[in-house]
Predict the 3D structure of the following.
Amino acid sequence: RKEVGHISVGSKGFNDLIAGGIETQAITEVFGEFGSGKSQISHELAVTVQLPVEQGGLDGECVFVDTENTFRPERIEQIANAFELPVDEVLQKIHVARAFNSAHQILMVDKINELIQSGTNVRLVIVDSLMAHFRAEYVGRESLAVRQQKLNQHLHSLQQIANTYNVAVFLTNQVQAKPDSFFGSPTKAIGGHVLGHASTYRIWLKKGLAGKRIARLVDSPHLPEGECVFKITSEGIVD
Ligand code: GTP
């Protein structure tokens, strides 16, 4: 079995919360309301995975499955500059795949398999956001079972990539904020049960005061629950 790798999220406090960064051979889900920082963390990771191991990376490339047109090359440029990495090279190592609907999103996983088998050193797969298409296409109670079944299949194939190729899978999931629920259990997460079981790590993001963000680790199998504060700056994610 290959050794588990970690990818830095940019903030020391955040890395400490998840024992050194997001893990390979695992699925990490971040969920939170609009503007909580899910896409920003995705962009940060797309860059940090490319760093050498001693700087918190895996010397690897990344696939960014973009379902809502959130990928911003100019944001990558800012973050790459902050790490003094060559912007063009960094962008070349981010394979952006736009998914037009949920079926396309599911098929994308086969393309990722092919990319890796052709020799590309992919160490991170980002899906931003996991649920947008599923949520839009499967509306109403009667379609819920089918949606969950499709989602389950999708997550299973992502997990398989994670295990087979020692890759980290990072998923974002938008959920509605519920007042005063931060210390309770976020049971209303849109993915429901299926996602709850597939994710190895689940991180709840919340807006704090003065532009700060709070990340709370919930239902992790090995790590204690806890939280940290981080900031989103032009340089990316920082303490
Ligand atoms: P969605 O809107 O659902 O995509 O939410 P999200 O959780 O993905 O939010 P996102 O990651 O896009 O974070 C949005 C927040 O990040 C904004 O409110 C800003 O505070 C911050 N942000 C985004 N881009 C920049 C930037 O270029 N510079 C700085 N300093 N902050 C930024």
